[in-house]
């Protein structure tokens, strides 16, 4: 398959699509837009030459993905487009996307070491979905963001996705300005010791109070900024705001911890530990009272790199929590060696334990597993007293959910009284 090895830009891709449409016998085109994450980490750990070498190797692999008549185009750094000429059926492009993601995600031996990138893709079709090359490209960009939101390798565009994309489509370049304008805020949800009822800490949850769209959920803007500098900018805001606030609460509630969510982009940042240490010093909040929550799915994107980064963070005093446990596909053999302090059971498993024997046994097994691994076990999504009582009987350590309090602004959290 022909390959444009240099980054040719989106205007070149649009011309390629128009030229292909004009050829005799072309009845349809599938566009697979492929985004690679992790290049920045390679640059920082192995050098920019290694980063270039990795991209060249991956580009060479991608050239073998399609048929002779298909074409792979290098766009901006770490973004490729696969043009599938006359796809045989609707699943043809999905198979091409899966193969492209697989070969792009395989480890690469370079001069100074070994590296591995992460990949996700968006897929759409012309003329089935779009009538112009620009519209086809836009649909694939929307689908890529949806893939990030769902933690899926690839997503095919559908009309329903456009209704969800209004804010996300502009989030990646708006977010820095929005932070400067003070549109972002944190809400805090209490974490409670299930045995004593005492407040143990809080989870900081980011909200965007958009001037046009109102209060925007992180599910709409976080996927849009994954892999960009805005992800680090947002984390800096969250760390500064949450640790400053937690420092004052720690005077009222000794031992108070603050939990902050970190994305795959944040976890790949070689300077993350230094950033946390700097913020800790500024606000005089002990770094060992910070809990960094990382989803099981994010950890599995690159298990070896995740383990190295978590060891670095924990050596600096940071506590690590495996978030949404049970929703991913992690190996228990891997988890037993994972440097972590806390296991957080996803609410989807917790919410039926007071009337489902299977769910109750599953959660009880996770609690036992967590304790066997020497971890503090947190259950989220606790909404009723019977749910709390069942978790206490299982030996679960910490609880979070509407029974104890909804996420609220700092001023409202000040009035929190866990024991009633």
In short:
By secondary structure, the chain is of the alpha/beta class.
Please provide a written account of the structure:
With 420 residues, the protein is an alpha/beta fold. It folds into two domains: 3-163, 2-Layer Sandwich (Alpha-Beta Plaits), CATH 3.30.70.270; 169-413, TIM Barrel (Alpha-Beta Barrel). The protein has 18 helices and 17 strands. The strands form three sheets. Strands 9-10-12-13-14-15-16-17 form an eight-stranded mixed β-barrel. Strands 1-3-4-2-7-8 form a six-stranded mixed beta sheet, sandwiched between helices. A two-stranded antiparallel sheet has the order 5-6. The protein is elongated. The model has no long low-confidence stretch (mean pLDDT 85).
- The number of domains is 2
CATH level 1 class label of the largest domain: Alpha Beta
Largest beta-sheet characterization: 8 strands, mixed, barrel
Name given to the CATH homologous superfamily of the largest domain: EAL domain
End-to-end separation: 68 Å
Widest beta sheet: strand line-up: 9-10-12-13-14-15-16-17
**Binned strand content:** 15-25%
CATH architecture of the largest domain: Alpha-Beta Barrel
Count, helices? 18
CATH topology of the largest domain: TIM Barrel
Number of strands: 17
How big is the Rg?
Answer: 23 Å
Shape field: elongated
Uncertain spans, ≥5 residues at pLDDT below 50? none
The helix content is 40-55%
Q: Mean pLDDT score, rounded? A: 85
* Structural class by helix and strand composition: alpha/beta
